[in-house]
Amino acid sequence: MSPSVPWSEPAHAKINLFLHVTGRRADGYHLLDSLAVFAGAHDLVEAAAPDDGPPPGASRAASPAGPHLVLDGPFAAPLRADADAGRDNLVLRAARWLAERSGRPNDATLRLEKHLPVASGIGGGSADAAAVLRLLRRRWGLSDGLSIEALAAASVVLGADVPVCVRQRPARMGGIGEQLEPAPEMPGCFMLLANPGVAVSTPAVFRAREEGFTPAAVLPARWPDADALAADLRATRNDLQPPAIALCPPIDTVLAAIAAQPGCLLSRMSGSGATCFGLFASAHDAATAAAAIGREGWWVWSGPMLRDADRS
Ligand code: C5P
């Protein structure tokens, strides 16, 4: 994060510790029961005042009317920021949606620093869009009339994962992902994230799912430690993991490599993949595992799982 830019928001990686597909709506969207948490790994969104000019370090995208978006960082290459990308780029759509909703000019100058792999099951575009919403809510002085909870609820029009990313705290996701309940009290634990570098299409994974539906999970009010969390998670699953592996076999290799690391309590895919996570009680074990797995040439990260308790 650049301390010199006061208007910045981290877009943390969202990890689905489990994801049960419990049904399907008439419009084709799937009903879910999922426990979402956030990892320390993050993209970064920054906003400048309109007369500050573009943020340093990147050229301004050719976009005649606001918002302006510049892209930077190791995973910026697959993304587009030109005017035509406005339909597809969720960051630009989020800025436009909030401007229209609040009746103000869409004059934001934004910079997205992309550190997380795209189309990888860890929030990605949804987390970036959510960070833009939180940032512009502050930047445009909307905080008094628009709570984070209200913003999260309304933001489902941008995508099923956007509300949980707006709140950016552990949550139990129901409905198509937009019905958020508090998560059980989470223990301190550490995560390893690994991605084999293959983008996976979320609609394709949902379409490839062949099994029936899985009941909602039964969870306690709190987990005292990482071992207790892992023990309960073993009774759950990610229903999108088998179809994602069928579409992208390297996911299975990543899962096996994570599971083989000393201290790994659970190895599972997040969201619709291809990013997989390992759960660890020890920061040292997670970091050692990340160093070992990084030798495969995959994108890896290790660090803490964020808890509500870490924020206040
Ligand atoms: O809402 P979002 O644009 O993130 O979803 C991408 C696609 O993933 C949807 O078009 C749909 O095919 C699938 N999806 C689903 N059920 C969900 C969430 C997403 O079928 N709960």
SSE blueprint and pairings:
Elements lengths: L7 E17 L5 E19 L19 E5 L17 H13 L6 E5 L11 H15 L8 H7 L7 H6 L3 E4 L4 E4 L7 E6 L6 H7 L17 H8 L7 H7 L2 H10 L4 E6 L6 E5 L2 H12 L4 E8 L6
Helix pairs in contact: 1-2, 5-7
Bound molecules: cytidine-5'-monophosphate (C5P).
What would you say this structure looks like, in words?
By secondary structure, this protein is of the alpha+beta class. The protein has 2 domains: 8-182, Ribosomal Protein S5, domain 2; 190-310, GHMP kinase, C-terminal domain (Alpha-Beta Plaits, 2-Layer Sandwich). Helices cover 27% and strands 25% of the residues. Strands 1, 2, 3, 4, 5, 6, 7, 8, 9 and 10 form a 10-stranded mixed β-sheet that branches. Helix 1 (90-102) packs parallel to helix 2 (125-139) and helix 5 (202-208) crosses helix 7 (241-247). The longest helix is centred in the middle third of the chain and has 15 residues, at 125-139. The protein is globular. The protein starts with 7 loop residues before the first strand and ends in a 6-residue tail after the last strand. 46% of the residues are buried. The structure holds cytidine-5'-monophosphate. This is 4-diphosphocytidyl-2-C-methyl-D-erythritol kinase. ATP binds at residues 117-127. Residues 229-295 form the GHMP kinase C-terminal domain.
Based on helices, strands and strand pairing, what is the structural class? alpha+beta
Mean pLDDT: 91
Give the CATH level 1 class of the largest domain. Answer: Alpha Beta
Task: Using the CA coordinates, give the radius of gyration.
Answer: 19 Å
Number of helices: 9
Into which percent range does the helicity of residues fall?
25-40%
Report the sheet with the most strands, covering strand number, pairing sense and barrel closure. Answer: 10 strands, mixed
| Uncertain residue ranges | 57-64
Total domain count:
2
Give the ligands present. cytidine-5'-monophosphate
For the secondary structure, the number of strands is 10
Which architecture name of the largest domain does CATH use? 2-Layer Sandwich
Strand content: 25-35%
Overall morphology: globular
Give the end-to-end Cα distance, rounded to a whole number of Å.
20 Å
Order of helices and strands: EEEHEHHHEEEHHHHEEHE
User: Could you please say which CATH topology of the largest domain applies here?
Assistant: Ribosomal Protein S5, domain 2
